[in-house]
Amino acid sequence: MIRLGVVGYGNRINNLIRDSFREQEPSLRVVGVVDPDEAGARARLAESDREGVRFYRNLPDMVRRGKLDALAIGTRCNRHATYAVQAAKYDLPLFLEKPVAVSMRQALALERAFEKSRCPVVVSFPLRISPLCELAHQYMAAGAVGRPDHVLAVNYVPYGTVYWETVYRDYQIVQGLFIQKATHDFDYLHYLMGSPIVRVAAVATVGKIFGGNYKSPGTRCSTCREADDCPESPRNRKRHQSGRTADHFCVFGKDAGTPEAGMNEDSSSALLEFASGAHGVYTQVFYTRRDAATRGATISGYDGTLSFDWYKNELRRVRHHEPFTDTVAAGEGLSHFGGDVELARDFIRVIKKKSKPRTTIWMGIQSIYACLAAKKSIETGEFVKVRQVGKAL
Fold first, then answer.
1. What is the pLDDT of residues 162-210, one digit of tens each?
2. Do strands 29-34 and 94-96 pair parallel, antiparallel, or not at all (unpaired)?
3. Nearest to 283 by CA among 273, 270, 298
4. Domains in the chain, start-ordered, CATH in brackets?
5. Residue spans of beta strands (DSSP E) within the chain
């Protein structure tokens, strides 16, 4: 049996444990939890865990008394780094949710903490190790484009309203959607381009679609007189197949944020420069719906162009100097496009000492450095250099 301790037992980590971790290792049991909302955490726990689990005041207490085989951190985003720094003191395998940090102070503290740590970390970067991304990497390694000199990456999010109608609307926790969302994308771009991002220029559109002063704080669809006509009400979303159909906070409410107080962006884009000399563009849009969904990249070199889209679940290779174009279809219906299965497999294998992580703490930190540079560029209107992991602290 694998004895797992969890810090922050929210929906995401619960779904991973239930649907992915246990698929790889049915004997896994949650035996320790650190979470101030004990009632909520207990309600999420599987029946097999409720009898044997113990709740602890803090992580050191759980490690000291829980006889753990591994740890998982699934707190709110602004607490990931705080607990990961504590976990770095132990040798226990750690599953760490992204983003690994939400500020430069946190990211630097993480880098210091893990400099000499023996704690093996699996960062929750499912895109990097999804089957489609791995296939793209194999094509790249085999010379499908030659030297990669340009990349265009897009993320048109069909469920983007979650960043204004749920707890993700709290900017003090999330710190914007480069930090929350693009940390995945900057990581897989680094992987496929074979080179880190070294300079970023970014822009964002804020408060044009969501948020603002339209509805008073706390307004929900169930209490709103305009729900019959509003396209964001559960009944109209269900009718149009255009989003989550549960009752939710108003996406146009004051408490969804304001540009002055801080809020998530409706859309944002970045011009990226890689250490190799290649450059590219990344853009993310959060008000798209339905069949507008797309997430993936087009990578070009002199020899060819390689493109893939996780929503279409296909990869396309164009040979520039031969009359051939290949299209490969991938499997469907998997969480995070199959990446969560791979994350779970890695984590269980790391616990059993059968392999090393493919999504390391250093990848998580390097990605957040690029995201923080994008955030700073939005604020200053200037190109910003990206800090590189391993430079003098």
1. 999 999 999 999 999 999 999 999 999 999 999 999 999 999 999 999 9
2. unpaired
3. 270
4. 3-127+343-359 (3.40.50.720), 131-209+260-331+366-385 (3.30.360.10), 221-249 (no CATH)
5. 3-7, 29-34, 54-55, 70-73, 94-96, 121-123, 150-156, 197-205, 267-274, 279-285, 294-300, 304-309, 314-319, 325-329, 384-385
